[in-house]
Amino acid sequence: MDFWTVKNITGRLLVGLRWWNFVDENGNNHWKFESAKDTSRFPVLDRRAFWIGLVLGPLMWLFFVTMAFFTFKWEWMIIALLGLSMNSANLYGYLRCRWSDTTQFTNYISKWAFLSFMFLDLVCVVSSRQSNIRVFSDVYRVS
């Protein structure tokens, strides 16, 4: 029910995105992705809530899969894997709607990876400077 609702209703109403898959008479799969041209008519709060919920869904199911694996609850892991696969398919479909061109998607992921690397590098530099300050203060004790 959640998969169908998000895929067919909330995506279109909250962010103006819709995707679907159909099989033609030759048995070939065809994926269709639609996005609204004017996204300014969708409130920012609605868009953020949609994307946060869409990303948190697969993360939640991944947590359930991990817990079922480590507690040896194989039958629950199968159910969690089903939820993970459906939510991941929804996330993939909406990401493809958002960036219809694969180069746009690749550029965004590359930019995100670069920024997260720079943030991690900044955190390492700051923490190493703090550790140098501690070492310096330990060597030269000021009375």
Automatic annotation (TrEMBL):
User: Sorted alphabetically, which InterPro entries does this protein's record hold?
Assistant: TVP23-like (IPR008564)
**Keywords, sorted A to Z:** Membrane, Transmembrane, Transmembrane helix
Can you say where in the cell this protein is located?
Membrane
Q: How does it sit in the membrane?
A: Multi-pass membrane protein
Q: Which residues form the signal peptide?
A: none
> Might you report a single GO cellular component term?
Golgi membrane
Q: Which residues form a coiled coil?
A: none
Transmembrane regions:
49-70, 76-95, 107-128
Q: Does the keyword Transmembrane helix apply?
A: yes
Family (UniProt): Belongs to the TVP23 family.
Q: What is this protein called?
A: Golgi apparatus membrane protein TVP23 homolog
- Organism encoding this protein: Cylicostephanus goldi
